[in-house]
Amino acid sequence: MNATRSPELVCPAGSLRSLQLAVDAGADAVYMGLKDATNARNFAGLNFDPRQARQGVQYATDRGRKVLMALNTYAQAEQPQRWFDAVDMAADIGVHALILADPGVMAYARRVHPELRLHLSVQASATNYEAIEFYRERYGIQRAVLPRVLTLSQVAHLIRNTKVEIEVFGFGSLCVMVEGRCALSSYATGQSPNNAGVCSPPSAVRWDQCGDRVDARLGGILIDRFEPDEPRGYPTLCKGRFDVDGTVDYAIEEPTSLNTLGILPELMQAGVSAIKIEGRQRSAAYVEQVTRTWRQAIDACKAQPERYSVQPAWTTALGRLAEGQQHTLGAFSRPWQ
To answer: Cβ(46)–Cβ(15) under 8 Å?
Structure first.
């Protein structure tokens, strides 16, 4: 293993406070989005207005860190100017890269701001090196974020066959869909997550108090039922509990978090350029704790890759923050193959 190469730690920021804590906890780069439909995590009460975005970029830059702006939804045909204006604003405040999915927005960014670094969003659903090379040759993409559906050997094969830097998710919520291709929640809400910017638009979410029990509905559809002592996560259709042949359980996907600390040496050996932490919708405390844990792990693996092991303190810290308090390697490990 080349012990001198260390992947960039890329951490989420749904607020200015999260950005600052991520930088202070050791993130090499922080990714953020605006308070509008250009952002695929367009949750109410989160994200950045132009003033906050400028403050965040300044805070990170002053400390030698990077800010990546996610303009990662697909522009509406009747109003693409909102996406173009966001590109202009990002360039003006000095972000280090844009994370893009829409080829039209990529073309605009490359034409108007050729000095601006472009990253291919996971929302673009590029799962092979031919697709990634197309985006590099046509739009000048310098990094691609892979969907969470590839095995470790597939990731390594892709890295060997592209000139583009590769970023993979290391920790956070999972999705059963190939990102960018999910249409599941649009059946319940009438809004595509790739355009509206969120799987469960707040306008479609309803919590009904039924005595001590709480029913969660999306677009009027009952998708989960919580007893008084049960934790209640934000309702998404794929992680709802349904009655299937008389058994009520997670019929599509269980709440669980990806955690790749156990294969960090293999990811580094494969040549992964960046490890991404999911969670712009999470709290600032979550961001700080996950960032600090992953900083320690990456530094330890870089210093002594052959002696690296997952420390109990890291497992404990991440276990408290994992969705459903469960960990998985997801598609990275498929022992049945």
So the answer is: yes
Read off the tokens for 90. Answer: 């990002």
Q: Does 334 have pLDDT greater than 70?
A: no
What is the model's pLDDT at position 196? 66
SS3 call for 112? helix
pLDDT (tens digit, 9 = 90+) per residue, 135-190? 999 999 999 999 988 999 999 999 999 999 999 999 998 876 677 777 788 888 88
User: Cα dihedral sign for 179, 72, 187, 14?
Assistant: positive
Taken as a whole, the chain contains a residue count of 337
Torsion sign over Cα 145, 131, 115, 85: negative
Query: Would you state the torsion angle of the CA atoms of residues 94, 64, 148, 224, taken in this order, to the nearest 10 degrees?
Result: -80
Residue 277 tokens read as 């932490």
> What are the sequence ranges of the domains in the chain?
8-174+256-332, 201-250
Q: What are phi and psi of 306, to 5 degrees?
A: -75, -20
Which residue in the block uniquely carries the two structure tokens 């202009």?
A: 88
Q: What sign for the dihedral angle of Cα 63, 287, 142, 94?
A: negative
pLDDT in tens, 208-229: 999 899 999 998 999 999 988 8
Provide the CATH topology of domain 8-174+256-332: TIM Barrel (3.20.20)
